[in-house]
Write a structure and sequence with these properties.
Helix content is about 35%, strand content about 10%. With about 290 residues, it is an alpha+beta fold. β1 and β2 form a beta hairpin. α4 packs across α5 (about 205-225).
Length: about 290
């Protein structure tokens, strides 16, 4: 029974018993009550049934993140929005990311490698986030085309993310760290427990052959750069050949924004008074004969 309901009925019963004693007692009479006294609720009918919320056949549970299960979708949406905000703030060089239109648990990305063994490589990938984020396993990162790398599965194209995040810790690990790790593996090669044993052996035993395989892999990925995305999603990252009618205006806008701070500094006219009197090293001093304006 609802505790609030039982408390109300007990108080009503106590009141009715006291009223009966006052009526039965001939010597004790209660003084007349004025209209200014507090209003009393009517007595509860004997056949009344308390109104309570329907009890779900499934017991109330809590999600692993400590919030009630009914708040799970809202908490997940907030967590992913906060993660994407952190990615934007980090400004990782050469890394671009875009959440999917169809599902917030899937993000599209691309990495541009500017120097090193994988120089000029443009690698498109997809991040898959667990539906119980941030309390589940670490996100998965899969390249659209498998890259020849010791830590990339040659069949599925999945990067060995668990190597850096053996256990995903809530409020400690973030998706931007996964992106930074994915960028770093192309500059610092690790061959311990590889997903591609051939790449690991060549890197250790025959670096020249390894470089040749890497160049072929980079060329293969770049040759498919203009292919349509594998997923029918309007937010999927796609590339198109240079078209001056389409891209020139955007290019000029980006370059003008980059040149704007420099132009402002050049056009800035520096003026003011020197606060050191000629022939003196004392600061905040000036010639007494200087005309006052």
């Amino acid at each position: 029974m609802n505790p609030f309901w039982s408390m109300s009925t007990s108080s009503a019963r106590k009141k009715s018993d006291s009223e009966e004693r006052s009526v039965s007692g001939e010597q004790k009479t209660s003084p007349p009550r004025s209209s200014a006294t507090k209003k009393q609720l009517p007595s509860i009918p004997k056949n009344a049934i308390p109104v309570t919320k329907p009890i779900s056949p499934i017991t109330s549970t809590q999600s692993t993140n400590g919030t009630h299960a009914s708040y799970g979708p809202f908490y997940l949406e907030y967590s992913l929005l906060a993660e994407f905000t952190l990615v934007v703030k980090q400004k990782l060089p050469g890394v671009y990311i875009q959440p999917s239109y169809g599902s917030a648990l899937m993000w599209f990305g691309v990495i541009f490698i500017r120097h090193g063994l994988y120089q000029d490589g443009v690698f498109k990938f997809t991040i898959y986030i667990p539906d119980n984020y941030p309390d589940g396993d670490c996100p998965r990162l899969i390249f659209d085309i498998p890259v020849f790398h010791p830590l990339v599965d040659p069949t599925t194209g999945e990067l060995d993310v668990k190597r850096a995040f053996t256990k995903w810790r809530r409020n400690h690990n973030h998706i931007w760290q996964v992106l930074m790790y994915a960028r770093r593996v192309f500059y610092k090669i690790d061959t311990v427990n590889p997903l591609n044993p051939e790449a690991a052996v060549l890197y250790e035993k025959d670096i020249h052959l390894f470089k040749g395989k890497v160049i072929d892999s980079v060329k293969l990925c770049n040759s498919h750069l203009f292919d349509q995305p594998k997923m029918d999603d309007p937010y999927a990252i796609s590339f198109s050949p240079w078209n001056p009618a389409v891209h020139e205006e955007a290019r000029e806008k980006m370059l003008s924004q980059k040149r704007k701070p420099e132009d402002q500094m050049k056009s800035m006219h520096v003026s003011g008074l020197s606060w050191v009197k000629p022939g003196s090293t004392q600061p905040f001093s000036k010639d007494e004969n200087t005309a006052q304006t």
